[in-house]
Amino acid sequence: MQEKLRQHIEKIIPLNDDEFAFVWSHFTVKKFKKHQFLIQVGEEVKYSHFVASGLLKLVYTDDMEKQHIVSFAMEEWWESDYYAFYTQSKATLSLECLEDTVVFCLSFEDYRKLCDGLQKMERFFLEKSNFGFLGSQRRIISLLTSSAQERYEQLLKRSPSLIQRVPKSLLAAYLGVSRETLSRFSR
Amino acid sequence: MQEKLRQHIEKIIPLNDDEFAFVWSHFTVKKFKKHQFLIQVGEEVKYSHFVASGLLKLVYTDDMEKQHIVSFAMEEWWESDYYAFYTQSKATLSLECLEDTVVFCLSFEDYRKLCDGLQKMERFFLEKSNFGFLGSQRRIISLLTSSAQERYEQLLKRSPSLIQRVPKSLLAAYLGVSRETLSRFSR
DNA sequence: ATTGGGTCTTGACATATCTCACGAATATAT
DNA sequence: ATATATTCGTGAGATATGTCAAGACCCAAT
């Protein structure tokens, strides 16, 4: 079970058994059913979540109650409302299961302890953060430069598996386009 | 001169004189005039830059030769084509001075040495990366949820100083809206 | 004083996308 | 098996924004 996390970390930095045991001791395993919430707007954000299996959506809900998808979290993704997590404030985003999901949870306190206790893990999280930043930057460029249809085609190319797993209305909410407009692209 | 960098770092982690001397030894100072390029598309990206004074634009140029502004870098910002920097590949973005500018340059090699030699600096860069990621995420949400006019008003509120320093055509290129459309908002 | 480059505004028209409405197809729960 | 909710596609009209063109303004250099 925890092997998934170990392999994930070892893609970036090698760990011996003792080190991984130390790492693993900071996590707790939680299981959720489709439609359950890991984070709700206004509540405390206790954990950063490593997705062992399943699929989640991180959502911003606007004044009109319209949902916008900040990101999808599949296997091997880390996900949380990170602003609230790092600043230990209340959630402005929600995190909800699109499928039955298993996550490994890391509290903010344990996150700090882990980094302080094992130098390598601070390095690991730095790499993760850098990749997250670069991914966001690429998405911004896509939003600035491409039409809705082009963004849809880019998404198909980059994440073909997503299309099988989530309804198109959610892809639309991720791309920043209406459900109906996206529907007309397929033709 | 280097005091600016020290104060900047000490907002996040305290340093004694020896530690800062060690940090500073990894940087080189460079000065540029308005219109000069720090990074050009296709060239190597040697440095991450700390802006001591001045103003820069990080630009993505599309197939139609249209410019899109990934970010503005003012005093105390770190800027580079970070994808190319981290992967040591060729630049896809350009970095150009909008004003006469002084930067402190950190090569990739020195960046690694700095992190390895002084634990605290890895921590510092992790904080920076996290903030960069959160900033990008907020901009994505803004692009997904708000009209061009709303995004303009948000920018005015968040960075009123920018408006004095850069032509509106560049603000438009940052917001993802045409120069003409942005011009009509002021009324 | 004059020139030339950059900036800003504005009008007219084109186009992408949104919204609302409806119905068909499909999945899900009882 | 039936009922119910979700999902998907499509038409028609509204709206935001883009594009092209013209002119006004400002400022630095000659």
TrEMBL record, chains A, B:
Cross-referenced CDD domains: CAP_ED
SUPFAM superfamilies: cAMP-binding domain-like
InterPro entries per UniProt: cNMP-bd_dom, cNMP-bd_dom_sf, RmlC-like_jellyroll
Domain Cyclic nucleotide-binding: 30-116
Name this polypeptide is given: Crp/Fnr family transcriptional regulator
Organism annotation: Flavobacterium shii
